[in-house]
Amino acid sequence: xxxxxxxxxxxxxxxxxxxxxxxxxxxxxxxxxxxxxxxxxxxxxxxxxxxxxxxxxxxxxxxxxxxxxxxxxxxxxxxxxxxxxxxxxxxxxxx
Length: 95
Description:
The chain is built from four helices and no strands. It is an all-alpha fold.
């Protein structure tokens, strides 16, 4: 494995462990695709550091178990903001 890839795998893994970040947020932060992050932590990391791979796996499993809740919360927030912006009185000075 090339040194820069090995270093990226370790950096990504440390970040996920430290922040419990999702694959998507980690990918954005590191400027790589979600697929790259996933491959780094599920395929490459176990051959580099088995203990770290187990820690990352726990976090990924937790994130996966909670993703439907995050999605529901995001949808609720979206529609709440739309509802708030369409209330009379917000845009009308005469109410």
